[in-house]
Amino acid sequence: MVPDGPLENPGTPLGEPGRRFVRGNDWSALADARPAVPPTVSVVVPYYRAQAQLDLVLAGLALQTHPATRLQVVVADDGSPEPPRVPAGVVVVRQEDRGFRAAAARNLGARAADGDVLLFVDGDTVPEPTYVEELSALPALLPDALVTGRRRHADLTGWTPDRLRDWFAGGPAPEELTEPAWLRDAGSLLEADDRSYRFVISAVMGTTRALFDEVGGFDETFGGYGGEDWELAHRLFTAGAVLAHRERAVAWHDGPDWGLRGDHPVAARREKNAETRALARLLPDPAARGVGGWWRYPDVVVRMAPGADDDATVLGVRSLLAAGVDLQVWGVDPDLLDGDPRVHVGEPAAAVLARCRTQVTLSGPVLWTRGGLAGLVERVRPGGVGRVTGSVGGVPVEVAATRALRRCARWGVDMSTVFGEAAVEVPAEPLGEHPDLGHWLPRL
């Protein structure tokens, strides 16, 4: 059975009094909680050559209800011809102009930040006065939290900081534009699944500095518009992050959502296709990458001990590769399988383990029945248990969700406490010495 509900923090490097971890993704007990002392917060604002919009964003940040003495603002300039003009106290960092590099700019800003909580807001997205207070509360209490706020849309053409201050004080509001349904309907994300990364947008996002640093921040290979926030969210979720959507943390984007801008359809499709290709390369979501490709970062990592002989090892690996799962195998000499790029000696690279959703450990090769491995993998998806252990055809096996392994290791707690465990006995054909390859390979 999967436990749920909050647990008191058992003590970690982030284990000050009042901090907690939760079971699964259930942060509901902390929904209205506030830290006894407001956290130190750094807000990172990526910027490129849009001073009037930045003026509004900085004016919004100057109005925050969060204590100014515990709030740092960092503007990360993506190579503008002229540096941004900012009020005293605002930190500016710059990188050279090598095209649109929002991911690298955000990382640059994060490196200059000194807050325990990192918040991100885009340079054309104006935070309401309670934005920082609302978005930082959960990460301050829950070091595993990855929180996205609510992005609303308005036409702020011609607006000044004075006009903005008047609006937030109760004066005339701007014309509100359509809020995209896909984000508005995200809900709280209490029941987040493997595809909930799609509801995290870096325009209104927050997490702890420790968790951001642990996963290495944004992937800087992203160029052009979009995708880097989904990839980071997937990697954070895989690292055990708790996803949350805080509708009370509101910021206003100047202009319509990307999907409602009315761009030329072919140009818009090309832009979206570039994002899709970039995500498929890095993100092992079957719905994102489809079937039929070879991927550097598999969905499932299998560690398999070799069999009694080369024939048993080859058949065991071929049985895994035929299981209908996006996987690769470690622990086997790829020369046994004619250099198959899905087979490796040694251990998986850190970048592979950072992205795979599931890890399987087999004490030897077995001949899997159709659907047998996929069924075990499904049991450790969100909503299931964190790990299943037992045997397949008499061979010891462990199948675990990477996010469960990572969070339990971070907190030093048992898997059964946070995610739950199950025992399994799966029928399969054990592979003794020199199985008949001519008989079995055509039947995989």
UniProtKB/TrEMBL annotation:
Keyword Chaperone (UniProt): no
Pathway in which this enzyme or protein is active: Cell wall biogenesis; cell wall polysaccharide biosynthesis
Domain Glycosyltransferase 2-like: 42-159
Molecular functions (GO terms): glycosyltransferase activity
Keywords of the record: Glycosyltransferase, Transferase
InterPro entries: Galactosyl_T_C (IPR027791), Glyco_trans_2-like (IPR001173), Nucleotide-diphossugar_trans (IPR029044)
All residue ranges annotated as the Galactosyltransferase C-terminal domain in the record: 197-240
UniProt record similarity statement: Belongs to the glycosyltransferase 2 family.
Annotated protein name in UniProt: N-terminal domain of galactosyltransferase
Organism: Klenkia soli
